[in-house]
Amino acid sequence: MKLKKRFQKIHIEITNICNLQCSFCPPVQRTKKMMDLDLFRQLIAEIAPLTELVCLHLMGEPLAHPQFVEMVEICDQYALNIFLVTNGVLMKSDKHNILLHPRFYQINLSLHSFYDNFADADASRYLQRIFDFTDRALEERPDLYINYRLWNLSDPQGQKHLNQEMLQRVCEYYQYQAPQLVDVRRQKSFKMQGRLYLHFDTEFVWPNMELPLLGEEGRCYGLKSHFGVLADGTVVPCCLDKEGVIALGHFPENSLTAILASERAMNILNGFRNKRLIEPLCQRCQYIQRFNQNPLGATSKENLIEISVS
After folding, report:
1. Closest to 241 measured CA to CA, from 82, 58, 61
2. What percent of the chain has pLDDT over 90?
């Protein structure tokens, strides 16, 4: 019988440098960094006993890393599956072969990032590259999950009409009838074909120490289902600590085992288990409120996404 490993996934920020600057994703204040390949190799060796899935993203655009192919090969050597989050802009044909590697478990494509950066541009070439890759994946890797993420479709301050147009083009290409109204508490992902999904959600505010205190009660999956490692080796308890405010330790100066067993890490984890938020950053995190919502409760306006696709 195969034993279940401790974490569902572990986030590795192979770079905090992005080729875009989206309005919904605040700029990284840390020093710009590409993770060194030797550090990545050491990290993967320690991560392998802890999980079966690594997400090569926390901040930054992973496809911008010049040694991305080598990193995939290292994951393969340690039998680690890969979860990728990308804006898709760099997803040209020369990237397709490596992204069809059998180690890739899921690829999330943030389609809403395109018009947020290029409001006056024609998205045809961008979308066609993604469609071409997806067509190959459906044929060659039918086990690969692909999510087309289109968030903030109801945001009047954002590129609502442009993202609705992009959704229209996606639906036309795959001959899919999108739902007219989505309650993201109940369902976010909608199957188009095979393992290709549309994924909807609403925007959230990234936690930071400038936000007001929201309370000391709440729960989170940080250090329970996942944790993150920033590009310089700093270990953080969750995927939303983009500036390393809650720095639990630094790898490889300390082993991951020692860092995760540290007093600070254990206090955070035990706090979550008892619905207590120990860290000041957690006490300001709006995303935590999502875990406290009742999906069967009354529908509120902020959870609804109205879709205008003919």
Report:
1. 58
2. 79
